[in-house]
Amino acid sequence: MKIMVTGGAGFIGSAVVRRAIAYGHSIVNVDALTYAACLDNVASASESPEYAFEHADIRDASAMSAILCKYQPDAIMHLAAESHVDRSIDGPATFIDTNVTGTYVLLEAARAYWMDAGRPETFRFHHISTDEVFGSLGETGFFTEDSPYQPNSPYSASKASSDHLVRAWRETYGLPVVMTNCSNNYGPYQFPEKLIPVVILNALSGKPIPIYGAGDNIRDWLHVEDHAKALLLVLEKGKLGRSYNIGGENEMTNLDLVRMICAILDQLKPGKTPYADLITFVTDRPGHDRRYAIDPKRIREELNWRPTFTPETGLKQTVQWYLDNDAWLNALHTRSGVGERLGIAR
Ligand SMILES: NC(=O)c1ccc[n+]([C@@H]2O[C@H](COP(=O)([O-])OP(=O)(O)OC[C@H]3O[C@@H](n4cnc5c(N)ncnc54)[C@H](O)[C@@H]3O)[C@@H](O)[C@H]2O)c1
Prior knowledge:
Layout: E1 2-6, H1 11-23, E2 26-31, H2 43-46, E3 51-55, H3 61-71, E4 75-78, H4 85-90, H5 92-116, E5 124-130, H6 154-173, E6 177-182, E7 185-186, H7 195-204, E8 209-212, E9 218-220, E10 222-223, H8 224-237, E11 243-246, E12 251-253, H9 254-268, E13 279-282, H10 297-303, H11 311-324, H12 326-330
Parallel strand pairs: 1-2, 1-4, 2-3, 4-5, 5-6, 6-11, 7-10, 8-13
Antiparallel strand pairs: 9-12
Helix pairs in contact: 1-8, 3-5, 5-6, 7-9, 9-11
This protein binds nicotinamide-adenine-dinucleotide.
């Protein structure tokens, strides 16, 4: 299949690109190369003759049309987004611009391309989104595909808006779409502003490991390689117009997760004192959702998908990857906002 991937130089997009190339697909990676992008993430895939890169912004309608016309893809996997909740608190405008307007521009370019091609039912616009659009859960219950949308941060509100646009383009224009909403991802190549790489980075440099609030917020963690596999499965086998929730069924409090990473670091790169001694509780994020947990029944039963990593195997592999790739990590230190506490403004 010929697939246009937006945001393929980011964390999840690059995992999709690497896996799609390994599966034998042709890829055009369209990325604006924002602060969160790193072309090293796709270095292995870029050696393939089936890989092409276009430096372009999804908000640029003529660039999107030109790329679609040049590559004639069978599918678009749309991952390009502003993705960091803390940054969305400090500067929501970029999130509205990229995640809402950008998705709208891309949908319109895709619709024109699809109509010119005679509206093939086989074309797919796969919109990749987050479980954060469903808001926060209490102690029990899970997000299903029918859960009401209740976004609480500018990031999740912008992603929720983009989900609604994609749904409307299906209902109104018949664009062949599939949609996915996934829980928190972790794994190699995650930009060092998200929890897990920040913990590893700070621990290794002997700096305080920040935990928001009491560390009792619960997240459902999924390894990025399991997510990438699920996304390609939904692209190929997902039912038209349908959405799929993807989750690892690995609920953990932030504090337990951080303690687990510290214990792995103690094993793999022992310091003078246990890394957990560096844990420091800091002011909570405003609007911090209490608990996310996905019910992945639909993707499991309809598409036979299951995650392959357990938290133990996945976190150990991830920590080892960061230890082995300190050059990758160090190169990102100077990017704006890295190492700073963001998102506390009220
Ligand atoms: N990280 C998670 O845990 C998670 C979980 C569920 C869903 N998602 C969704 O998955 C997608 C990818 O997330 P990620 O963590 O890989 O994000 P990321 O921030 O690591 O990467 C985003 C990529 O999009 C590119 N980009 C940003 N604005 C662009 C624009 N206007 N035009 C073209 N490219 C642009 C960036 O350069 C970057 O390469 C996002 O849509 C996000 O909402 C993320």
